[in-house]
Specification:
The structure is a single chain. Helix content is 82%, strand content 0%. The two termini are 27 Å apart. The relative contact order is 0.12. The chain contains three helices and no strands. The chain is an all-alpha fold and 95 residues long. It has one domain (2-94).
Length: 95
C-alpha cells in the first residue's frame, strides 16, 4: 500500500518538474526566432556582437531557470502530503 503512494508521489513530482522545465525552454525557443530580425539589424549596425547578447540573455534567464522549478517542486511537496521537513524541501538542490 505504501509503495503505491510513493510511486504516485514520485510520478507527480516527475511530471511537475518536467512540465516546469519544458514550459520554460519552449518559451525561450520561441523567443529566439522572434528576436532574430532585431539582432541581425543591431549587429549589422555595429552596436554589439552576438556573444554579449547571448551572455546577457542567459544572465537574465538564470533566476527564472532556478525559481520556476523550485516553486513547482515545493508546491508539489505540499500538495502530495509529504512531511514538512527542511531537508525534503531544500534537499532537492543537492541532487
Amino acid at each position: 500500500m505504501k509503495l503505491g503512494k510513493y510511486l504516485r508521489t514520485f510520478g507527480c513530482h516527475f511530471i511537475g518538474i518536467a512540465c516546469s522545465f519544458g514550459a520554460f525552454f519552449l518559451i525561450n525557443a520561441m523567443a529566439i526566432p522572434l528576436e532574430a530580425v532585431i539582432i541581425r539589424k543591431e549587429i549589422g549596425n555595429g552596436w554589439y556582437s552576438v556573444l554579449p547578447y547571448y551572455y546577457s540573455k542567459i544572465l537574465v534567464d538564470i533566476p527564472v531557470i532556478i525559481v520556476s522549478p523550485l516553486l513547482a517542486t515545493v508546491s508539489l511537496l505540499v500538495l502530495t502530503g509529504l512531511p514538512y521537513t527542511p531537508i525534503r524541501y531544500f534537499g532537492i538542490l543537492w541532487y
